[in-house]
Amino acid sequence: MKILFLILFTSATRATTDVEKFLSPNAVMRQLFEIFRNAIKNGSKENNVPVLDPFVNLQNEFNIDHPNMRLFANLTNSVYSGLGDFQLKKIFFLKEELAVDLTLLFPKLIMESDNYQMKGYIFGLPLFGQGRLRFEVKDLEIKSKIHLTLSENGIATLIEKFENPQFSVRKILSNTEFDENIDCIINKIVKDVLATYITRFNKYIIHTYSETIKHFINVFLDRFDTWRIISSLL
Ligand SMILES: *[C@@H]1O[C@H](CO)[C@@H](O)[C@H](O)[C@H]1NC(C)=O
Ligand SMILES: *[C@@H]1O[C@H](CO)[C@@H](O)[C@H](O)[C@H]1NC(C)=O
User: Fold this and answer.
1) Which residue among 68, 87, 103, 165 has its CA within the 20 to 30 Å range from the CA of 139?
2) Nearest C-alpha to atom 12 of ligand 2 is from which residue?
3) Whose CA is nearest to atom 3 of ligand 1?
4) Which residue's alpha carbon is nearest to atom 9 within ligand 1?
5) Integer-rounded Cα radius of gyration of the chain
6) Residue range 199-223, pLDDT digits in tens
7) Parent domain of 172
8) What angle is formed at CA 53 by the lines to CA 50 and CA 54, rounded to 5 degrees?
9) Ligand closest to the CA atom of residue 58
10) In a domain, 225, yes or no
11) Among 68, 64, 20, 6, which residue's Cα sits nearest to residue 201?
12) Phi and psi dihedrals of 86, rounded to 5?
């Protein structure tokens, strides 16, 4: 979810990157991810990317409407952090398929908000209330084969599709005010079951949201002049 908001606020431009020709394709891919990490953490004027970690949003509304996940949330002064701390556990460039095989780990993603209102449920777990919100997602690991494609402007490398994507979450901690009387109960339920539920239904979640996720990641990738690097590997 975080990624979706973050990338919404970027706009198009081109990047200049410097990749050594003699590196192996996998090392080149790792360098690209370091360029993205730098842009996420420090922002990039050149590429018109704001600082995305931490990312501050004064006001945002979520509206998820799906049979197993129905949630309306209105957040004020939200801060999202941890996106730039990803670890690239595995990346394998598949030249013939123009794809990468990827395992990416986010050790800790934090979402905090001064004031929120929320109503809904995720897989039968009711989430409602208002007040301060803090969720901490531990060890979100994403695995996928990702097919790449050239952007319309002929400059950037975009995601064409995810093949067999999956993810897991080790733990979600919540320190959120729901309803004064039941804060600790709901926070404990979140801690005990939410990560397990989300992991168990990960394929369903990805299937439901993969086009949206792809779109937002591509809005980010479209800012970077990376095609010439990828094409040098082909
Ligand atoms: C952010 O910029 C600083 C100063 O230029 C640099 O030392 C640091 O490595 C950059 N951060 C990342 C993640 O690249
Ligand atoms: C969201 O919160 C803001 C600030 O409290 C409020 O002005 C706005 O009306 C809320 N939006 C909805 C849809 O409730």
Assistant:
1) 68
2) 74
3) 42
4) 38
5) 19
6) 888 888 888 889 999 999 999 999 9
7) 24-232
8) 100
9) 2
10) yes
11) 68
12) -60, 150
Name the more confident of 2 and 130.
130
Closest listed ligand to the CA of 62: 2
Number of domains in the chain: 1
CA distance 143 to 162: 10
Tell me, what CATH number does 207's domain have? 3.15.10.30
What is the reported pLDDT for 181? 65
Looking at the CA of 34, name the nearest ligand: 1
Give the Cα separation of 229 and 30 in Å (integer).
12
Report which ligand 2 atom has the smallest distance to the Cα of 74: 1
Q: Is residue 19 part of a domain?
A: no
In the structure encoding, which two tokens stand for residue 58, read together? 């004064």
With respect to residue 205, please indicate whether it lies within any of the assigned structural domains: yes
Task: Give tens-digit pLDDT for 130-150.
Answer: 888 888 999 999 999 999 999
For residue 177 the two structure tokens come to 């005010």
| Gap from CA of 150 to ligand 2 centroid (Å) | 40
Q: Whose CA is nearest to atom 10 of ligand 1?
A: 38
Residue 7 included in any domain: no
